[in-house]
């Protein structure tokens, strides 16, 4: 089923309604859909390199709005819908671990998980369930999703189809490396003040 959905996303990326489809997938992935929008974003940035930043911006905005929907699921419907979605992604019964990690790391949890391949919907739903600060949640989501999607779009624009298979296989390592650099910079800057 996921393979068919993956193929459908690739078809949508090449179609005339690619940009609205990218927005819908980005929104849905932040709250309930299993596949990341990177599947569409990469090929779209390769096919229309002059629009790479626009596609990344659409992806980021829709993802943040979808994240607010995921937050609402966690806040209002965790015991029913939220717990069910978390179970679908293999984290059922691990809510206490997620909450403990969240209690300890807070905004860093949002930031790091938003960059990595771990489903962002888990972050959004747990953020709502934990009643995390909405302004901080939105700011962290904008930053983390923006970094991820602009990096993916730029890499595909710059290196195109020749690098696509490598990037697709290594997207987790690329974004994790980017996260380490950014977090290191933030920590270093905070130590200087």
Strand content: under 5%
Low-confidence segments, given as residue ranges, are: none
Number of strands: 0
What structural class do the secondary elements suggest?
mainly alpha
What count of structural domains?
Answer: 1
Q: What Rg is obtained from the alpha carbons, in whole angstroms?
A: 16 Å
**What is the helix tally?**
8
Kindly state the percentage of residues in helix: over 70%
Give a quick summary of the entry.
This protein has about 190 residues and is mainly alpha-helical. Helix content is about 85%, strand content about 0%. It has one domain (about 1-190).
Question: What does this entry look like structurally?
Answer:
- By secondary structure, the chain is mainly α.
- It has one domain (2-192).
- Helix 1 runs parallel beside helix 3, helix 3 (38-47) runs antiparallel to helix 4 and helix 6 (107-115) crosses helix 8.
- It has helices at 2-14, 18-29, 38-47, 52-88, 95-105, 107-115, 120-129, 134-192.
- The relative contact order is 0.14.
Which terms summarize this structure?
193 residues; mainly alpha; 8 helices; 0% strand; globular
Blueprint of the fold:
Elements: H1 2-14, H2 18-29, H3 38-47, H4 52-88, H5 95-105, H6 107-115, H7 120-129, H8 134-192
């Amino acid at each position: 089923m996921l393979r068919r959905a993956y193929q459908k996303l690739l078809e949508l990326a090449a179609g005339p309604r690619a940009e609205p489809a990218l927005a819908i997938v980005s929104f849905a992935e932040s709250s309930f859909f299993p596949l990341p929008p990177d599947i569409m974003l990469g090929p779209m940035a390769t096919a229309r390199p002059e629009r790479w930043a626009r596609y990344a911006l659409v992806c980021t905005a829709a993802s943040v709005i979808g994240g607010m929907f995921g937050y609402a699921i966690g806040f209002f419907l965790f015991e029913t819908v939220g717990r069910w979605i978390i179970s679908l992604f293999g984290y059922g019964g691990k809510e206490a671990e997620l909450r403990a990690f969240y209690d300890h790391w807070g905004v860093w949890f949002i930031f790091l998980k938003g960059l990595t391949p771990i489903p962002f919907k888990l972050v959004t739903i747990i953020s709502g369930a934990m009643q995390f600060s909405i302004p901080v949640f939105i700011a962290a989501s904008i930053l983390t999703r923006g970094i991820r999607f602009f990096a993916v779009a730029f890499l595909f624009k710059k290196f195109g189809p020749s690098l696509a298979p490598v990037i697709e296989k290594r997207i987790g390592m690329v974004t994790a490396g980017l996260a380490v650099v950014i977090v290191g910079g933030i920590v270093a800057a905070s130590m200087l003040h």
